[in-house]
Design a protein that fits this description.
Shape: globular
CATH superfamily of the largest domain: HAD superfamily/HAD-like
Largest sheet: 6 strands, parallel
Number of strands: 15
CATH topology of the largest domain: Rossmann fold
CATH class of the largest domain: Alpha Beta
Amino acid sequence: MPGIKAVLMDLDGTLFLGESIIPGAPESLMRIRELGLSITFLTNNSFYSRRMILDKLVDAGIESRLEDIVNSGFAASEYLKERRGSCRVFTVGDVGLVEEIVLGGHILVARGDEADAVVAGGTKDISYWRLVEGHRAIMNGALFLATNKDHVYMTEKGPMPGAGAIVSFLETSTRRKAILVGKPERYIADLALRKLSLSPREVVVVGDNEEVDMALAEAIGSQGILVLTGISKNPSSNKWLVAKTPLEIPKRLSTLI
């Protein structure tokens, strides 16, 4: 597959388990760059803002820049800006999502009846009454966005309930389907590709989840590399290459360039 110029690299389960770097990840990224490929970190994680992700990468010894990071909170903020301009947003999510919504020029509201849009994402501090306000906003006609619908995310202690659990609560209570902006929907990938000025055939998607990362690769028509350090341990398809650890990623990439 000639003409590969960049890698769309997942984070959780691929390079990190919770707050811990997976052994070999920094060395793998260095070798990928030595192959002449740029790296964009493409993650469904909306717990953190891009700034917070950058701090995490730098603390782990991984060279990066803010413009190298596209996460689902940023994608949600951009989606709203493109389609509604600056709007009043009620968030059901964590501080990283709030930061991205504010940076996008939107106005945070504390009550559902004030919202033009509801953005739901992962959070470790959820209350029933916040879900109630989100429910009311959606029932009143607010646009309903999901940063992602991952059923779990990977940590040092194993899989933990993901944003999909929160989104499912609101979808069930309102009988409204959320607009998904994160992986495996292509909006977040198209956002990254526009920033890179590249086509899907010029990038490789790397991640640990067949249902999310590899499904995205298939959706946009890119090659994929599944890393077996996170969610998917037993590949169900031979459509993509497989790396048992991060250190194997450069070897798999070298067969594509």
